[in-house]
Design goal:
heterodimer, A: about 230 residues, mainly alpha, Rna Polymerase Sigma Factor, Chain: A, Arc Repressor Mutant, subunit A, 2 domains, two-stranded antiparallel sheet, two-stranded antiparallel ribbon, elongated, B: about 300 residues, 4 domains
Chain lengths: ~230, ~300
């Protein structure tokens, strides 16, 4: 597979485990063994039978990727934290109804993507919350309040001008919630379009069209910066 | 393949979503079409720019979310108890896990109503007069249930967090445990600063040093990180502390912290691994003092300022 592809993290069997990099939780790796699948099924059955420890283990397998999806979609720690809570509370309340008709990852992602889509739709209805809000300490840029953890002293940082950053946020904000979701899952979560279609209850072709429209809109808006 | 088809396929090719044959056809087209090659290059640049905005989940945020979920789950479990298990079993039965005979269903529904009725009787009663007034309720109190009561009254079930004062020295196990927890887990940066400030008096202990090293590397608040770094100063020769300092030097966005980190690392040892660290730092450091210290240390160690 060419190294210059975007988000070339294949998700064949989405059973992630957390990798510690230099003492920091750095990435979610995806195991693909049938043993991992069996372990997960056993964990789900134990959690369904009321084993609190098994449920906690299940949460810990997936919670970082759920939180990352919500954080990158909603760009707010508070909102991402709320989505995290609501997702896993719904999983807890409805796990008894999980029948292994699909993978647990797909089932979980249906819950989190539906919650995020609802949230994005509400934001659209509200015509986008202002990025600058008044606080006791004066005006605060909500986007600026979220730390840019990927930005470091790299020389590329100079190229990533504030203007470009604002434009990217603007164009992402103008995508439809579904385009935004497909783009997020493909670009940042590295999910295959087929898996995205399955999560969103649509076809691979429809997910492909969403991704195409999203990249076209970004190409049109960001062309002047390249 | 014409340009229109190729341009439609370019984003999919970039994401590795084309079949082998389609990808081959696009590559053949790109070999002979400069316009589409430029388009592909533009899409790659957009991809790189988008990478820069990705937010990573900090261990701090993840821990906060897990703790909040843990509390919610405990509430959920304690609220359900026996009644909850029966309700879950009935819900399970109706959801298809167990096909209850038709006649059983009204009986089960009646059981649910009865559970609600008797359950409400089990909740202790407090008159409104006993609750002071709504305005002086604990600010973190949560109203769980609201029910109209006879005589135009309202009955509320409220969860309250009660405060209590604990005092003792740092040797006191409970005080120590609470302080360590406040330094790591509190969502209030002021409280974390205060806790680290007190804990750093007892940095001889491994548990305190571990908390300070974690705070230095991962706390989102620079004030807390600075306090933690101050506490670690006397231990700057220890390998694990040096590792934390090196992490701060390379990744902390606060120049004040990087300045102190480099001073500590250079003063306390000038060993071989430090050379690589300083060379890496020099490639990206923008603060002139840190750069100067870095170059000076490399000169003293007779090392090049560049990597090859």
């Amino acid at each position: 597979m060419p190294a210059d592809r975007i988000g070339a993290r294949d998700i064949l069997t989405p059973i992630p485990s957390i990798i510690l990099l230099d003492g920091k939780i750095g990435a979610v790796a995806l195991a693909t063994t049938s043993a991992a699948r069996t372990d997960e099924a056993a964990l789900i059955r134990a959690a369904q039978a009321g084993d609190a420890g098994a449920f906690e283990q299940l949460v810990r397998v997936y919670d970082q990727s759920v939180l990352r999806l919500a954080l990158n979609l909603l760009r707010s720690h508070e909102d991402a934290s709320d989505i995290y809570q609501e997702t896993f509370l719904r999983v807890y309340r409805n796990l008894h109804a999980f029948r292994f008709d699909c993978s647990f990852h797909t089932w979980l992602y249906r819950i989190v993507t539906n919650l995020c889509l609802d949230y994005l739709r509400k934001r659209k209805v509200r015509k986008e919350e202002p990025t600058v809000i008044a606080t006791e300490d004066g005006p605060l840029d909500r986007m600026g309040a979220v730390p840019e953890e990927r930005v470091d002293g790299d020389p590329q940082r100079n190229l990533f001008s504030k203007e470009l950053k604002d434009k990217i946020e603007q164009v992402l904000g103008e995508l439809t919630p579904r385009e935004r979701m497909v783009f997020e899952m493909r670009h940042y979560q590295g999910m295959r379009l087929r898996a995205i279609g399955e999560v969103l209850g649509t076809s691979e072709e429809a997910a492909k069209n969403c991704l195409f429209r999203a990249t076209q809109k970004m190409r049109a808006a960001l062309g002047a910066f390249l | 393949m014409n340009c229109e088809d190729a341009r439609r396929s370019l984003p999919l090719m970039l994401y590795g979503e084309l079949s082998f044959d389609d990808e081959d056809a696009v590559e053949v087209h790109l070999d002979k079409c400069a316009g589409c090659r430029r388009e592909m290059a533009a899409l790659r640049k957009i991809g790189s720019a988008l990478e820069m905005r990705e937010l990573d989940v900090s261990p701090f945020l993840l821990r906060q979310c897990r703790q909040r979920l843990q509390s919610s789950l405990e509430e959920e479990r304690s609220r359900s108890g026996f009644g909850g298990r029966v309700t879950a079993a009935l819900r399970h039965a109706f959801s298809g896990g167990f096909r209850a005979p038709r006649i059983v269903r009204p009986v089960s529904a009646a059981a649910l109503v009865a559970l609600g009725f008797f359950g409400s009787r089990l909740v202790s009663n407090t008159s409104v007069a006993g609750l002071h007034s709504a305005s002086v309720l604990d600010p973190v109190a949560r109203v769980r249930y609201v029910e109209p009561a006879p005589g135009g009254k309202v009955q509320l079930v409220v969860d309250e967090t009660r405060q209590r004062v604990i005092s003792g020295s740092l040797d006191d196990e409970q005080v120590r445990r609470l302080l360590l927890s406040a330094a790591k887990d509190s969502s209030d940066p002021g409280l974390r600063v205060e806790s680290v400030e007190i804990l750093k008096q007892d940095c001889d202990s491994n548990d305190v040093r571990d908390v300070l090293m974690t705070a230095l590397q991962h706390d989102p608040n620079p004030g807390v990180r600075l306090k933690a770094l101050e506490g670690l100063k006397p231990y700057a020769r220890q390998p694990e502390v040096r590792k934390a300092l090196a992490h701060a030097l390379l990744s902390d966005d606060n120049p004040g912290i990087r300045t102190q980190a480099i001073d500590l690392l250079i003063q306390n040892a000038k060993e071989q691994p430090l050379i690589g660290l300083l060379q890496e730092l020099l490639r990206k450091e923008s603060n002139s003092y840190v750069r100067l210290q870095c170059q000076k240390a490399l000169r003293e160690m007779k090392a090049s300022a560049e990597t090859y």
